[in-house]
Amino acid sequence: MIVVTRASGQLGRLVIKSLQRKMPVVEIVAAVSNPEKVANLAA
């Protein structure tokens, strides 16, 4: 499992998208301070 902190920022989003191509999404955790900003990542 990999945790990406500050995932709602520009770099965090790029890291998440890159990880999605390399590993199962159930192993990626996005740590954010405002979950509403990243609702699209949850889908």
Detailed description of the structure:
40% of the residues lie in helices and 19% in strands. The chain has 43 residues and is of the alpha+beta class. The longest helix has 13 residues, at 10-22. The radius of gyration is 9 Å and the shape is globular.
Overall pLDDT confidence = 89
Number of domains: 1
Which structural class fits the helix and strand makeup?
alpha+beta
Q: Specify the number of helices.
A: 2
Summarize the biggest pleated sheet. Answer: 2 strands, parallel
Strand content: 15-25%
The percent range for helix content is 25-40%
Taken in chain order, the helices and strands follow as EHEH
The value of Rg in angstroms is 9 Å
Choose one word for the global shape.
Answer: globular
Strand order of the largest sheet: 1-2
Fold blueprint:
Blueprint: E1 2-5, H1 10-22, E2 28-31, H2 39-42
Parallel strand pairs: 1-2
Question: Would you kindly provide a brief summary of this structure?
Answer:
By secondary structure, this protein is an alpha+beta fold.
Descriptive terms for the model:
43 residues; alpha+beta; two-stranded parallel ribbon; 2 helices; 2 strands; 40% helix; 19% strand; globular
